[in-house]
């Protein structure tokens, strides 16, 4: 958020802990990017659950994302139909420039 503010980019913030995404919104992210792209396997929740994605189907992973939304890679940037997850300043800048 700080980077977006420094770049004078207008955005809407949604705290998924207080205002969770709907199952349909998560499904839309997964359809546009893939379950492997959306899922954050480096996060605390993934490690605390001691999961191995080799043992889990895409449906299992999707259900985990719906139940534990902090496992969604952040930030999630949505502009129209375009979606990007994760923070890389150059990647975000290119994403925003392409949405201009």
Biggest β-sheet, characterized?
Answer: 2 strands, antiparallel
Stated plainly, the CATH topology is called Glutaredoxin
DSSP strand count? 2
How many discrete domains? 1
What is the CA-atom radius of gyration, in angstroms? 14 Å
- Ranges where pLDDT stays below 50 over 5 or more residues in a row are none
Q: Tell me the span between the first and last alpha carbons.
A: 19 Å
Strand content: 5-15%
| Strand order, largest beta sheet | 1-2
Residue share in helix: 40-55%
SS content category? mainly alpha
Please report the number of helical segments. Answer: 6
The CATH architecture assignment turns out to be 3-Layer(aba) Sandwich
Chain-wise SSE layout:
Blueprint: H1 2-6, H2 23-33, H3 35-38, H4 44-49, H5 58-67, E1 76-79, E2 82-85, H6 89-99
Antiparallel strand pairs: 1-2
Q: What does this protein look like?
A:
The chain has a single domain (2-6, 19-99), classed as Glutaredoxin. The protein has a two-stranded antiparallel sheet with strand order 1-2. The protein has helices at 2-6, 23-33, 35-38, 44-49, 58-67, 89-99, and strands at 76-79, 82-85. The chain contains 6 helices and 2 strands. 9% of the residues are buried.
Brief digest:
The chain is mainly α and 100 residues long.
Describe the structure using short key phrases.
100 residues, mainly alpha, Glutaredoxin, two-stranded antiparallel ribbon, 2 strands, 47% helix
